[in-house]
Amino acid sequence: MNEERLRSLLREAPVPGGEEAERRGLRVLEAALGERSPPRRAVLPRAALALAIAGLLAILLLSPAGAAVRHWIGDVFDEGVPNAEPELSRIPGGGRLAVSSSAGPWVVRPDGSRRLLGTYREASWSPHGLFLAAASGRTLTAVEPDGDPRWSLTAPAQVADPRWSPSGLRIAYRSGRALRVVHADGSADTQLDRSVAPLAPAWSPAGLNVLAYLDRGGRVVVADADSGRPLASAVALPGIMALQWGPRGELLEASPDSLRLRQIRLEKLGGGIRLGSVKPLPRPGSGRIAEAVLSPRGGTVALVRRLGGVAQTRTEVDLVDSAAGSVRRLFRTPGQLGEIAWSPDSKRLLIAWPQADQWLFVPTSGRGRLRAVAGISRAFAPGSPAGRGVGAFPRVSGWCCSASSP
């Protein structure tokens, strides 16, 4: 037997008493483990790891690269309010909406039900919601909320921007380049100015048949709507895109870059009008103003501002307090918001969000629940595929009725 074979046999041969020794060793080991307390977790290393991760995230979010990450996160989570209501079941706070769409203008009742008025291009409310002034081509029509026309007239040129006076006795509208006024029964249709700017006129809220408008020379003109006599005029804000006469006698002028209010006072002696001094309103940061609307109770202007470039557009809705000169952000989101409309009691704003195909009803106090309604395009274009985009999105042209209405 050679040496290698002998070594192999010795390795395989059992050791005398070996099995008993192995069992005794196992019993001793089990007893020792039973008396030992559970090991404590290493808390400090885990806490240090968490702090390191938090620091890394802070550096990332504060860096230029982090800005891109934040923008991406906003795009993912802020493209529409999650779990929005699938359809409008009621109008928060009540009232009725006039909505212009590609199918024509609609009336939305407080319970959310809606009715298409006809194949008009646009429509606006009478002061107490009894009628709407609707435009289609060269035709101006007074139509009831159920769609029944009361009267129609044919204008010399295409009709645009019909606006009913607070007295309920007159309707002003643009016909081509001219500004015209007609009695509420469709009679006495007359030309007030033969050449005006393409901007909706604004009626005096005092119940007088007095009208403010922008002429072709860039001046704000206040005129007697019955006689056609100019009562006062002043140079308008450069680039003016909105003109609104508020309930406190203030005339709002808005451009993409600035806002201002001008007081208009009735002179009791002589029955004239005096244009007061101009009060610039604070500009809320950078960006361009896309919409500016005075609240029905006056004093507060709601703004839609577009921020950023074409590739990374963001939109912000702000409330400007004209008395305090303060600005409060109400809503901000990536993408483009559409128009805004005040509720009759000034407690809510309807904010259109075309890219998300939603309407947002936002409390202006900053408290309370935001309501989001989805499927707006489809709701106002029956039988058509839902168009998602600013051009195809329905536009709110009025929330009836004013706070002073009975």
Please write out the topology:
Elements: H1 3-12, H2 18-35, H3 43-62, H4 64-78, E1 96-101, E2 104-108, E3 114-116, E4 122-125, E5 132-136, E6 139-143, E7 149-154, E8 159-164, E9 170-175, E10 178-183, E11 190-193, E12 202-203, E13 210-214, E14 219-224, E15 230-235, E16 242-245, E17 250-254, E18 259-267, E19 272-280, E20 288-294, E21 300-307, E22 314-321, E23 326-334, E24 340-342, E25 348-353, E26 358-363, E27 371-374, H5 376-379, E28 395-400
Antiparallel strand pairs: 1-2, 1-28, 2-3, 4-5, 5-6, 6-7, 8-9, 9-10, 10-11, 12-13, 13-14, 14-15, 16-17, 17-18, 18-19, 20-21, 21-22, 22-23, 24-25, 25-26, 26-27
Q: Can you characterise this structure?
A:
By secondary structure, the chain is an alpha+beta fold. Among the domains are: 120-280, Methylamine Dehydrogenase, Chain H; 286-406, 6 Propeller (Neuraminidase). The chain is built from five helices and 28 strands. It has helices at residues 3-12, 18-35, 43-62, 64-78, 376-379; strands at 96-101, 104-108, 114-116, 122-125, 132-136, 139-143, 149-154, 159-164, 170-175, 178-183, 190-193, 202-203, 210-214, 219-224, 230-235, 242-245, 250-254, 259-267, 272-280, 288-294, 300-307, 314-321, 326-334, 340-342, 348-353, 358-363, 371-374, 395-400. The protein has a four-stranded antiparallel beta sheet with strand order 3-2-1-28, with no helix packed on it. β2 (104-108) and β3 form a beta hairpin. α3 (43-62) packs across α4 (64-78). The longest helix has 20 residues, at 43-62. It is globular.
